[in-house]
Design brief:
The protein has 3 domains: about 130 residues, Nucleotidyltransferase, domain 5, CATH 3.30.420; about 90 residues, ATPase, nucleotide binding domain (Nucleotidyltransferase, domain 5); about 70 residues, Actin, Chain A, domain 4. It has 13 helices and 18 strands.
């Protein structure tokens, strides 16, 4: 009887894996793959606290809303900054992902490796209030490793570096467990902030976060390019108070990004220094795997290879690595149970 009920529950509900990121949220539905890929942004009516838009529609409002509407990111550095808004965002994504299924879904959510117990509880409660029947939290670097195809259950060392919008997660993995992990609050958002500050400091030009992101994606780099690029940037002159247009180079943006890029490299070096000798020897052949949207910064793989002396591989689909990992964990429950049993 219990087996029948379990099969019926599976037919009438959709298990969901979620990469609840600072910049973007991806939702994996068991049997379907990644079905939602939206910015982690919510637009709210100030007075009534009514949710007006979630995801891409809300991101379009960033920096463009009238006084009565606020477009905000409820996640900061990989953790919940606004519980109620995060809950509303998760509810909207779960409702969209589960469709017309009758039973509430089981949800696996990826979280930073060094998240506090308070923040773990907040993520779990937000998902339960948003409509999940059961919530499992999986460390982001482990999810990323699974998602990019690393054999995490083998007795060999694997180093995964997942760089998202709010955090950089570096983890040495072996035998379905994290041997050592380091999480630093450096990612795409910090890079955008550094570009904003650079434009203000050097050119007295005020630009928004969306413009900074465009600059990073278009001409940003971590390593000298074979052919340097330029880009036209528009903003507000802080001296005259008027709109202004100027042209910046990829060399300048590389200089602006030097701080966060150096912190990422240092986090990797620190993890390598803490690695047991036997696992370190595995990395000479296996190297380092990069995942996460911010790992797409031009030349970052070359810089890390130069600084560590190890081969560096960029995942085939770095943007979906964590979400795919939560999905594979849903589909391979034996592996998930092994990973849960290896936790400290």
């Amino acid at each position: 009887m219990f087996g029948f009920f379990k099969r019926l529950t599976g037919l009438l509900s959709s298990d969901i894996g979620m990469d609840l990121g600072t910049a973007n949220t991806l939702v994996f539905v068991k049997g379907q793959g990644v079905v939602i890929r939206e910015p982690s942004v919510v637009a709210i009516q100030k007075d009534s606290k009514k949710i007006l838009a979630v995801g891409a529609a809300a991101k379009e409002m960033l920096g463009r809303t009238p006084g009565a509407i606020v477009a905000a990111r409820p996640m900061k550095s990989g953790v919940i900054a606004d519980f109620d808004v995060t809950e509303a965002m998760i509810r909207a994504f779960i409702r969209r992902a589960r469709g017309h299924k009758f039973f509430r879904p089981r949800v696996i959510i990826a979280v930073p490796s060094e998240i506090t117990q308070v923040d773990r509880r907040a993520v779990k409660e937000a998902a339960l209030h948003a409509g999940a029947r059961d919530v499992i939290l999986l460390e982001e670097p482990m999810a990323a490793a699974i998602g990019v195809g690393i054999p995490v259950t083998e007795p060999e060392g694997n180093l995964i570096v997942d760089i998202g919008g709010g955090t950089c997660e570096v983890a040495l993995i072996s035998l379905a467990g994290i041997v050592y992990a380091k999480s630093v609050r450096v990612g795409g958002d910090r890079m955008d902030d550094e570009i904003v500050q650079y434009m203000r400091r050097v050119y007295n030009l005020l630009i928004g976060e969306r413009t900074a992101e465009d600059i990073k994606v278009t001409i940003g780099s971590a390593y000298p390019l074979e052919e340097e690029m330029t880009m036209e940037v528009r903003g507000r002159d802080l001296v005259a108070g008027l709109p202004k247009t100027l042209r910046v180079t990829s060399e300048e943006i590389r200089e602006a990004l030097r701080g966060p890029v150096s912190e990422i490299v240092e986090a990797i070096r620190s993890t390598l220094e803490k690695s047991p000798p036997e696992l370190s020897s595995d990395l000479v052949d296996r190297g380092i795997v990069l995942s996460g949207g911010s790992s797409l910064l031009r030349g970052l793989d070359r810089l890390i290879a130069q600084q560590t002396g190890l081969p560096v591989t960029l995942a085939d689909d770095p943007l979906s690595g964590v979400a795919n990992g939560t999905g594979k964990a849903l589909e391979e429950m034996d592996m998930l149970q092994k990973i849960m049993s290896r936790r400290n």
